[in-house]
Structure formats: C-alpha cells, structure tokens
Amino acid sequence: MKVLLVGGGAREHALACHLLQDASTVELVAAPGNAGIAAIARCQPVAATDIDSLLALAEKERPDYTLVGPEGALALGIVDRFRTAGIPIFGPTRAAARIEASKVFAKDVLRDAGVATGRAERHVDAAAAKAAVRTLGAPVVIKASGLAAGKGVIVAATISDADTAIDAMLIESRFGDAGQEILVEEFLEGEEVSVFGITDGTRVVSLIPAQDHKRLLDGDRGPNTGGMGAYAPCRDQAFADGIADTIMAPTLAAMRDRGCPFTGLLYAGLILTADGPKVIEFNCRFGDPETEAILPVTGPSLAPLLHAVAVGDRLPEHVPSAPPRGFAVTTVVAAAGYPEHPRTGDPIVLPPSEPALHVFHAGTAFSSTGQLVTAGGRVLAITAVAPSLAEARRRSTDYARRVEFDGKQYRTDIAARALGGDARAS
C-alpha cells in the first residue's frame, strides 16, 4: 500500500513510524517531511499548505490514500480538492474543519449538541471584550478564534493581563487574522485530558487518552506553546470510550445536522471539572505532541481504520481495544527563543539511540554541509516507553537533557503530577 503523508513535524514522524510497523507492505511518501522522516520515507519538497502542488503530487504518485497531519491544510480545503479529483484522503472537509479553525463555530456546535463547555462570548471590539472580562472576573481565558499554531489561548490571571491579551489580538493584530475575532471564556478548574477519535462521521473509535503540557516552563509557568510534552495513557480505555459516546457522538450528530459531516480524526481537549468533563476545544487532526506519546503504546496498527475512513467506508460497529503497550512520556526539546522568536540554524548533536526510545523530528533540517540543525520552534519530541510511568519519564527527560544545541529549552516535569510530585523539587 502507498500512503502520501502531508506534513513535516514530530506528529508526522510518529505517524510515519506507526504506518511503517509493517514496512514490507507500505510505501510512504511525505510532503514535505523532515530530516527524521527522510530516513524512513521518500520526501518531496512540497509545503503542507500548497494545495495545488500537493494535488499534483498525489495525481503523480497515485497513493492508496493521503493522510493529512497539520490543521492548516485541512482548513484550506485539501480534502475537498482531493475528493473532487477522486483521490482518497483522511480528514475533514473545509466546512467540517471549522470545528478547529473557528472557536466561535465550535462553541455553536457544542451548544447545538448539548455538550458541556465553558461560558464564552464572541467579540470583535476590544472595549466590549474588556467589559465582558469584568463581568466574568479573573482568572479568565482569552482565545483567538482562528488558527494560531496552538499559541492563541491566553489564560489571564488578572483583569490587567486579560486587557493586554485583548489588545494584542484585536488592536495589535499579534495573531493576524486568527485574532480578529476572539472569545472571552470562563476559566475552568480541573485536570486536562486529550481524547482522539477516528470517525467515519457517525461511528467513533477512541484512542488511548493522553495529557498535554502547554506551558513553556516547569510548574506550568510561562507562555502557552504548541505543547512541551505529553504522556499516555492518562486514563483508561473505558474513559475514552465514554467520551466518544457522550461528547463526540452528539458533536458529530450536530455536524451532520449542519450539513458538514465530520470524518477523520476528532480531537477533544477536555477539562475534568467537579461537574464532569467539559470541552475546552476541538481539533480536526491528530494532536501534537500527544500523537508522539499515544502511537508508540498503541497496540494494533491504526492503518486499516485510517484507510477505511479515507476511502469512504464505514468503520466496524465494534473495534476491540488492546491494552496499552506500557507507558509513554514525550519531552519536547525547543529552540532558543521559542515560542515568540525561535532561532534556527543551530547545530544539533543527538545522543546514541536507545531501545524503546523514539526521537521524533519536528523542526530539523540538514545544512549544506550535512549537519543536522534546528529549523523550527519545537525541534524534537523525545518519547520513552517503559513498563512504568516513572521509568518512562526518567528516560525521556534524561535523553532530552543530553541532546546538544545552543539555547535548547525543555521541561523536566512532564507527567510529574500524575506521579504525585513536582519536578522543581526533585
């Protein structure tokens, strides 16, 4: 089977490794790929947002199906274009991808579906948004409605912080078009959990639950990022199946009622409040860095499910779930200056490879001299798999510590809360 993989981050590297578990039967082409993916697949220098060129590549390669990693391509309508051309593709249409591309749209869908979420108001005027903040009180969450690479959510501890965030989005246009419409949302207390569901638009197969760590620094301090690490499983499969039934299924029904059925990977970002799980956000694709933690401990290959959805088949009514293959902890190693102004071009030196440890490349490239260098904000995702969560965390953190490049940033406390400790005290 030939698969075209769109994207070039650590998520795509993890997907590539998962698809190639049975390498003898899979031919993988990646666009654009990265330095890590190039070692296991044939990479083509086509940007993930260049839909015309991706379509031309697919028409040339004729893959059995295309798997899209990043949300940008989905929001631009790559699925619509490929389906019109008769090329099977895994992912939602442009209309359905609005569940991530527009947080205002997602809130409307949640309301229609009767799914619990935080109170929120839509605003395009800074003064009105600031008035809403004073009604809700602090802490409060300010969200850019559009796609902002995981950085468009600001948890404001004070009203002054909220005013600054509103100005940054609506007046200073720091998030571009993504921040021209915002949500002022109540702050919800509780633990965050990510649940993925592969869906044909009606049926859902839930994956192993994971927990992301968004803040840059240990102790959940510093600015929000695209994600500095994750661990899996953080809950059992029964929990994930319950979320599929109570949150994903009614959401999918609401999408069908709106005339934009959702197929592909639906990601529910949840917070476990005293009143039960509530949706913080939906994403329309595999999450990053959760994918790097989930896939290495996922039992049977997901490839048959991905292919079925891509070609328009119904998913089986019941898919037996296999127990996780241990615990996984992913530590992201980021570039100097990330997330605001990441520096590129710094030479990278990797420690020797280790059993049950995956070095997923994100922002990497080869220089003209063949040296591996930084080429993005999040550079590597280091996933260790072990029989215990504590061992997985120790090995992931230790390898990240030994990665060498100037100005590297990483957290030492991924999964620390789950182990009843705080890395700052260890």
Separation of termini? 48 Å
How many domains is the backbone divided into?
4
Low-confidence stretches: none
Strand order of the largest sheet: 3-2-1-4-5
Explain this structure:
The chain is α+β, with helices and mostly antiparallel strands and 426 residues long. The protein has 4 domains: 2-91, Rossmann fold; 125-180, ATP-grasp fold, A domain (Dna Ligase, domain 1), CATH 3.30.1490.20; 189-311, ATP-grasp fold, B domain (D-amino Acid Aminotransferase, Chain A, domain 1); 327-425, Phosphoribosylglycinamide synthetase, C-terminal domain (Glycinamide Ribonucleotide Synthetase, Chain A, domain 4). 28% of the residues lie in helices and 26% in strands. α6 crosses α9 and α7 runs antiparallel to α8 (159-171). 50% of the residues are buried.
Explain briefly what this protein structure is.
This protein has 426 residues and is of the alpha+beta class. Helix content is 28%, strand content 26%. It has four domains: 2-91, Rossmann fold, CATH 3.40.50; 125-180, Dna Ligase, domain 1 (2-Layer Sandwich), CATH 3.30.1490.20; 189-311, 2-Layer Sandwich (D-amino Acid Aminotransferase, Chain A, domain 1); 327-425, Alpha-Beta Complex (Glycinamide Ribonucleotide Synthetase, Chain A, domain 4), CATH 3.90.600.10.
Can you tag this structure with a few keywords?
five-stranded antiparallel sheet, five-stranded parallel sheet, 426 residues, 26% strand, single chain, D-amino Acid Aminotransferase, Chain A, domain 1, Rossmann fold, 22 strands
